[in-house]
Amino acid sequence: MDKTQKIALVTGAHSGIGRATAIRLAADGHAVVCADVLGTDDTVAQIEAAGGTAFGVTLDVSKAADWDAAMAAITEKFGGVDLMAAVAGVVNRLSPDTVVDLTEEAWDHVLGINAKGIWLGMRAVIPSMLERGGGRIVNIASLAAHKGLQGLASYTASKGAVEALTRQASVEYGRQGILINAIAPGTIETPINAALLATPEGAAASLATTTIGRWGQPAELAAAVSFLLNEGSFVNGQVLLVDGGWDVSGGVSYDSTTM
């Protein structure tokens, strides 16, 4: 490994936005730690085949012990972490996701990964960044945090927490050289959205939310992450909307017939 390389940790690197982000950051010249509970062998292989440096770790972002083990492995191999893209996230597939019908099990599952996982991740990497003189973090939120969307109660709550935690951490650590921002995607064509986008009704409703008439692609989110991690030297505590104009247009909200 080139000792001048920065070490970038990407959670959720098994597929979708996480995989695209890991590949992009490797192309930017960073050594990338690919982390996911489902494994990251394919992502690591793609990066290495392109001449990049990558290392895979198994990580359940909702478990503090997993973070401890991951940071121990990363520190042993690379010395620490300079950059983190916290991409790992889920939607509720355990119960209906309205405020009344949502189960406690489903709430704990979604908030555990989407919100607690962000907190645990920042708690794990910030000490390393402080030791290395600074760092940057991008947390993936969602446009759902800005709107009421039918059938997404736990998801919306979790992503609102991501944005609040991002702002809070940016205040606490900005003067110590750590810039922390969030990205709020609209509908991105990833495995997590596959079931919705596969139905004519869901696909039509999704396309109608944008001002440009198409879904976003994982590489487009990865490009935004790359900017904030590499170039955004005077950006801190912000939420960048990468949503194809959904927030501007208002779009068409999903309803229970398209979920």
Describe this structure in words.
This is Beta-ketoacyl-ACP reductase. Belongs to the short-chain dehydrogenases/reductases (SDR) family. Keywords: Oxidoreductase. This protein has nine helices and seven strands, in the order E-H-E-H-E-H-E-H-E-H-E-H-H-H-E-H. The protein is α/β, with parallel strands linked by helices. It has a single domain, classed as NAD(P)-binding Rossmann-like Domain (Rossmann fold, 3-Layer(aba) Sandwich), CATH 3.40.50.720. A seven-stranded parallel sheet has the order 3-2-1-4-5-6-7, sandwiched between helices. Strand 4, helix 4 (104-131) and strand 5 (135-140) form a beta-alpha-beta unit. The termini are far apart.
Show the helix and strand layout.
Layout: E1 7-11, H1 16-27, E2 31-36, H2 41-49, E3 53-58, H3 64-78, E4 83-86, H4 104-131, E5 135-140, H5 153-173, E6 178-185, H6 194-197, H7 200-208, H8 218-230, E7 239-242, H9 246-249
InterPro entries: NAD(P)-bd_dom_sf, Sc_DH/Rdtase_CS, SDR_fam
Protein name: Beta-ketoacyl-ACP reductase
GO molecular function: oxidoreductase activity, acting on the CH-OH group of donors, NAD or NADP as acceptor
